[in-house]
Amino acid sequence: MTMSLAPIRRVVTGHDAHGDAVIATDDALPTVVELAAIPGTIFHEVWSTAATPVSIDNGPDPTIGALRLPPPTHGTRIRFVDIPPDTEDFLKHGAARMKEAFSQVGDVHASTVRPDSPHPLMHRTETVDYGIVISGEITLVLDKSEANLKAGDVVIQRGTNHAWANRSGKPCRMLFMLVDGQFSDEVKPSRAGS
Questions:
Q1: To 10 degrees, the CA torsion angle through 157, 72, 177, 26?
Q2: For the whole prediction, is pTM greater than 0.90?
Q3: Which residues contact 177 (CB under 8 A, 6 or more apart)?
Q4: Contact between 173 and 134 (Cβ < 8 Å)
């Protein structure tokens, strides 16, 4: 049962041959992908950068190509994610599908799910993520705590092991800005623990 939300319009600016500001594109997002292993979970790729400082140019659309969960090294990634309501079947059997799900988003090693995990979508990336609830409700699940979130709430996710649990019965749309990072020695995951 896929419940879809409205399509997202993206306006990208650029420069013409005289250096004047112009609208380069004004259209729907070219890369929108539903995860096969988690039906109803839809990634809407908005943009990414591959360096800091970023080159400001009229280069090609960086969202075209294979879906990747993390941003490029030294880069950023912005995307919307539609998260369907958790189902009893998913909560019971979802952990078995996480390798497939994270493979589809180009980061098979992000999944940290174990038999004692609080949610089958537990994962961790070496990023700082700004997550904003656009519509609906969601629960941020951490190893030892949770936070219930509603539209307008913001999460600053600093490389922690986490999952997004949708217990509302309705789809949730979130906007994520991912910034490439590096774990400090105090929070670096051990091979045995992640």
A1: -170
A2: yes
A3: 76, 77, 78, 129, 130
A4: yes
Report the relative pairing of strands 31-34 and 42-49 from DSSP bridges. antiparallel
Of the candidates 157, 88, 73, 86, the residue with the CA atom closest to the CA atom of residue 123: 157
**Does residue 194 belong to any structural domain of this protein?**
no
Bridge partners for 45 per DSSP: 31, 79
Domain assignment of residue 17, yes or no: no
The CATH number linked to 58 is: 2.60.120.10
pLDDT values of the chain reduced to their tens digit, one per residue, 194 residues: 445 789 999 999 999 999 999 999 999 999 999 999 999 999 999 999 999 999 999 999 999 999 999 999 999 999 999 999 999 999 988 888 888 999 999 999 999 999 999 999 999 999 999 999 999 999 999 999 999 999 999 999 999 999 999 999 999 999 999 999 999 999 987 644 44
